[in-house]
Amino acid sequence: MRMLLLHARYQLLETARIPIAMVGNLVFPALIMLFFVVPQSQVGGDPVAATAAAGQLSLFAVINVCLYTFGAGIAEDRAQPWDAYVRTLPVGAGPRFGGRLLTGLFFCLLGLIPVIVVAALFTSAQASPAQILAGVAVVLGCGVPFLLMGLAVGYHFSVKASLVVVQLLVFPMAFVGGLFMPPEIFPSWLDTASHAVPTRAGRDLVVNALTGGPVDGTALLVLLGWTAVLAVLAVVAFRRDEGRRFR
């Protein structure tokens, strides 16, 4: 545990030394809320629509952190001599990996704060403390498959390639999953197709948690299915990288 916390502290300090590296991930979802949700009275002025928008963009904030921290971040670390040296230490990969998870969790929680503040101050979003806590827990749970996706990208691609892959994943998935606009306005074919992507499944679970709706069993199954597939891809990418560099 001591080594795990030490690795987490090191990674936090390493990121904090370059503030601009985390500003985009933390501020961008809140800016979308401020510029595209607040001015629309039919959304920002409607309690249900505003609450749903806050949930959607909270999930987008977590996805951003997961893919950029665990995708591009891991690829960048792998390119450094320091990472190869740390892997040779007798402590093993557990504390290093656990420290990265704690760092990602910290930035996920940090990324939710601006969205929640904007929603509370400038929209009619309404949720009880219990619903907010449930929403935060569901958002973090829905972030697991995207964390695994980030691991698969980070351990498989180089630094330059990982940045491109992450960008190609984040925005199309967010759009198709209804994180930028409610899926209720999608054409029927897009609404049907979006139920197969993890962003839509996560969006539906988060919105239901915030608005007090029932748990969507289909969305939960889709999310679990993606989690299983991405877990396999992440393990394969990690073992491939370990074997390629140390056999």
TrEMBL record:
Keywords for this protein: Antibiotic resistance, Membrane, Transmembrane, Transmembrane helix
Subcellular localization(s) per the UniProt record: Membrane
Xref: Pfam families: ABC2_membrane (PF01061)
Domain ABC-2 type transporter transmembrane residues, every copy: 9-207
Main subcellular localisation: membrane
UniProt-recorded name of the protein: ABC-2 type transport system permease protein
Record PANTHER family: NODULATION PROTEIN J
Membrane-topology annotation of the record: Multi-pass membrane protein
Parts of the chain that traverse the membrane: 20-38, 50-70, 101-124, 130-154, 161-181, 218-238
